[in-house]
Amino acid sequence: MNYLPQLLYPLYEARLLRQIADKPQPKHVAIMADGNRRWAREAGFTDISHGHRQGARTIGEMISWCRDTQVEVVTIYLLSTENLKRSTEEVGLLFDIISDVVMHLSQGDLGCQLRLVGHLDLLPEEVVARMQRAAGSTKDNTGVIVNIAVGYGGRQEIVDAVQNLIREEVEAGAPAAEIADRVTAESITEHLYTKGLPDPDLVIRTSGEQRLSGFLLWQAAYSEIWFTDTYWPAFRKVDFLRALRDYSQRSRRFGK
User: Fold this and answer.
1) What does this protein do, in the record's words (predicted)?
2) Which active-site residues does the annotation give?
């Protein structure tokens, strides 16, 4: 076995950290953790659960990497509304693994503050209850804010935001003729799943796919996007720091 790469990684990590130390860094990073199943198959596993479980371990590691950076918010895409159409067996497995991820992050020494974002009504009640209890136990933590996007769809989020906004206006007695004028970019933003948080500065997608696939469609309108061919279970701290270095070298042009 060649141990040279393992010996060099800490040196390379230190170099990357020096390169971004005095450069602009993202405050909010959104991650599309993609490629778990492909990683498992290419690693020779017939049981794809190995990919999902290794990907789950990578999540905790990635949150710990933020300690050496200026990242304050992480939103990680774990289960889309489209994923719910997979086989009953795989969806059940994903529910178990995602619940375990939330439990692990809530009980570890990361000190992160967990939030669930998504159309939770699409998930089994017992799964939602377990995750909400775990997330609720972190409300007083002062570490990185971690949004777990589960049962999430970008279009559905916008639909939910507009519907909730209109319901509030109706309940407040707003005249029907005035409701349309009260639907603004600002009022919609205040009703998104991520309300109260800054939009992501950087979106990272693993596995070689180069599309947003409905992830944070509203919030990511002006985000920088970084793609990598690396599958999520194989994603390393050096990959994360490379993404931050690339971000630090870009000149952001909002709306252009």
Assistant:
1) Catalyzes the condensation of isopentenyl diphosphate (IPP) with allylic pyrophosphates generating different type of terpenoids.
2) 34, 83
